[in-house]
Design brief:
The structure holds two protein chains of two kinds.
Chain A lengths: L1 H10 L4 H4 L2 H16 L2 H27 L7 H15 L13 H23 L5 H20 L10 E2 L14 H22 L3 H11 L1 H5 L5 H27 L1 E2 L6 H14 L5 H23 L7 H15 L3 H13 L13
Antiparallel strand pairs in A: 1-2
Chain B lengths: L2 H12 L5 E10 L2 E11 L4 E5 L6 H9 L6 E6 L2 E2 L5 H6 L2 E3 L12 H11 L15 H12 L15 H12 L6 E5 L7 H12 L6 E5 L3 H7 L2 E6 L2 E6 L1 H6 L1 H7 L7
Parallel strand pairs in B: 3-8, 3-9, 6-7, 7-8
Antiparallel strand pairs in B: 1-2, 1-4, 4-5, 9-10
Helix pairs in contact in B: 4-5, 4-6
Classes of the chains: A mainly alpha, B alpha/beta.
């Protein structure tokens, strides 16, 4: 009876702190204490950027991993939100920027981005597999070209610079340590939210729809409506990521949401792994490390630094070749093998 | 249609109308007639067996009723309401349920999660962002269903590793979620052991008397024990209808079932 009680509490969220493995607590303490031993560059350029890209990739992981919908729209949604804070709020392009206060411009930016994503989702959910990828890629490139050619609203090729976070609570959030905590907070929040949602009716149903849409319809679920709702929800996370990204680089331009970055988000999610919400963050961290240090590695080996894209590409190829389900897949298999007897292949009881 | 008549239609929908009424329903796959001019009337609470050889159109009949695919022609009324053009989820929310011949379950989820999904699908909680609490009504009804089909032992087991018979029982539990008014059972006894068949018959005969159903069953023994009326289908058409005893002793039916029909 005791074991049944325990399993129930495990399932329905009682004593949640007891169920979190020690590794997570260690990771949390490490991340919180990071500013004590990391320099500004690492905090701002490595971790800050990785958290942001992780969030945008997380929104893709939610759609693709739980919902079975590979959407290439997430970077576009992020880009649109970034544009909107620049246009509605403050930027160096004062002729276009409306200069609304942050508490209006930020919610409005997130709202506009999610309305856009919901409309696109409404189109995309009627397709399956490769066609979803194609239609979302088409919308993403259309947005890129539109933003590049429209000078009235999007300021064309150069976009907006001088976009910075509001001076809230007397803190300059652009400072590396403050920005690190800002991104850590939002990344953690979205991670926990997705983690929680995966076991709530909405998330469970989404996974059911991924595995068997016909059966879900036969259980009373409106499959199309549920998928569109998933797009709407994921877009909020992508939009917050997009706003943070715009603050980090201080600017937003069509290139931010170009076809390259759009595909990069897919790469990040794939190399990290799409089964669980931690995957996108692992992927983003690896991506950022490679992007930042590939040049130095090549030069230290006596090779031309301009070939850094080759090194990045080869690394991704290697990861996907050895583990099609990303780093998470490697980890899962390693744990699986450790739990088995090497001779018989039988599962050991205590892993 | 004006408002008053719509309301009166809804009133008959819950009251005196037949549970299921099909009028001239056909289903063509290209030129192939899987089902032709089917008219069936099932009273509320009535338990009907549909018999017939492979390819007689039995599963097609179910698919048209649940909306898995739309009929080519004819009308289907569920408790008086015309559901011919409804999407499947609207039919399910009105109290229609079905099981699948080849289990359509969620293999990566546990038994209780599968049933929980079925319960959530017909409740307003299906979009909920909040995890269920321990005293949650949906969880409680899911647990009741687990108990009803005797799967308590494997409640938290992944469905993928369940025995075949247990998966069939899970199918039934999912069809009983919420407040079903009418259930379509597609060969629930196929592949079950004699003991499991006995349990199945117990579950079916133990259902509340207002819950009607149609059961497709090859095993005459099971079918005749759980049904009060029988419809025989052959080559996509209705061949005979009647009481179990009449059908069992009918010479044409016997010829069909003993394999004579193919030659004659």
């Amino acid at each position: 009876m005791a074991s049944v009680e325990y399993q129930e509490s495990e399932k329905f969220g009682l004593n949640w702190w007891e169920r979190v493995p020690a590794v997570w607590w260690i990771l949390a303490v490490l991340l919180l204490a990071m500013p004590a031993f990391a320099n500004s560059f690492v905090l701002f350029q490595i971790f800050g950027w990785a958290f942001i890209l992780g969030m945008i990739a997380l929104s893709l992981m939610f759609l693709a991993g739980y919902g079975g919908m590979v959407s290439l729209l997430q970077m576009t949604v992020a880009g649109l939100a970034g544009y909107m804070v620049a246009i509605l709020g403050d930027s160096a392009i004062t002729t276009i920027s409306l200069g609304w206060p942050w508490y209006v411009s930020i919610p409005a930016a997130i709202f506009i981005a999610s309305v856009f994503a919901t409309l696109c989702g409404w189109l995309a959910v009627r397709t399956e597999g490769i066609y979803t990828i194609m239609i979302t890629l088409a919308i993403a490139s259309a947005f890129f070209y539109f933003a590049r050619q429209n000078y009235v609203i999007f300021n064309g090729f150069s976009g907006f610079n001088g976009v910075s976070p509001p001076q809230l609570f007397g803190v300059d959030w652009k400072q590396p340590t403050a920005f690190y905590y800002l991104t850590l907070f939002w990344a953690t929040l979205s991670f926990l939210l997705i983690q929680y949602l995966s076991r709530a009716p909405f998330g469970l149903a989404l996974q059911g729809i991924r595995d068997n849409p016909r059966r879900m319809a036969a259980l009373g679920f409106n499959v199309t409506g549920h998928r569109i709702a998933a797009y709407a929800f994921a877009s909020v996370i992508a939009a917050i990521g997009g706003i943070l990204l715009t603050w980090q680089s201080g600017q937003i331009s069509p290139g931010t949401a170009g076809v390259g970055p759009v595909i990069d988000i897919l790469i990040i999610a794939v190399i990290g792994g799409m089964r669980r919400p931690i995957g996108p963050f692992i992927g983003a961290f690896i991506y950022v490390l490679l992007k930042t240090f590939a040049v130095d590695v090549l030069i230290s080996l006596g090779l031309g630094g301009e070939r850094f894209q080759l090194l990045i590409g080869l690394s991704f190829l290697a990861i996907v070749f050895w583990s099609p389900d990303g780093i998470l897949g490697l980890w899962d298999r390693w744990r699986e093998n450790r739990g088995r007897d090497p001779l018989t292949g039988e599962r050991r009881d205590a892993p | 249609m004006n408002a008053p008549s719509a309301i009166s239609e809804r009133l008959t929908a819950t009251g005196t109308a037949n549970a299921l009424e099909m009028r001239g329903v056909s289903k063509f796959f290209g030129a192939l007639a899987a089902m032709q001019d089917i008219s069936i009337t099932v009273r509320p609470g009535e338990r009907r067996a549909v018999l017939g050889s492979n390819g007689a159109g039995k599963t097609t009949l179910f698919n048209c009723v649940t909306g898995d695919f739309p009929p080519t022609g004819g009308t289907i009324r569920f408790f008086g309401e015309d559901i011919t053009n409804f999407p499947p989820y609207e039919r399910i929310r009105r109290g229609l349920r079905r099981t699948y011949q080849i289990s359509l379950l969620f293999p990566e989820l546990s038994v209780i999660d599968n049933i929980y999904l079925a319960c959530a699908g017909v409740s307003r909680r299906r979009f909920s962002f909040l995890r269920p609490r321990r005293d949650d009504a949906l969880v409680a009804s899911a647990e009741n269903l687990v108990h009803l089909v005797r799967l308590d032992e494997v409640k938290d087991t992944k469905v993928a590793v369940l025995a075949y018979g247990q998966q069939r029982q899970l199918e039934i539990a999912m069809a009983l979620s919420g407040a079903p008014r009418f259930i379509l059972f597609d060969e629930p006894a196929a592949g079950l052991s004699p003991t499991e068949r006995g349990e199945l018959v117990e579950i079916l005969t133990g259902l509340p008397s207002h819950m009607g159903y149609i059961i497709i069953e090859h095993d005459m023994d099971v079918a005749l024990r759980v049904a009060e009326s029988v419809t025989m289908m052959h080559n996509g058409r209705i061949f005979k209808e009647g009481k179990p005893a009449e059908i069992e002793n009918d010479e044409e039916v016997q010829a069909l079932y003993l394999g004579g029909a193919e030659h004659g």
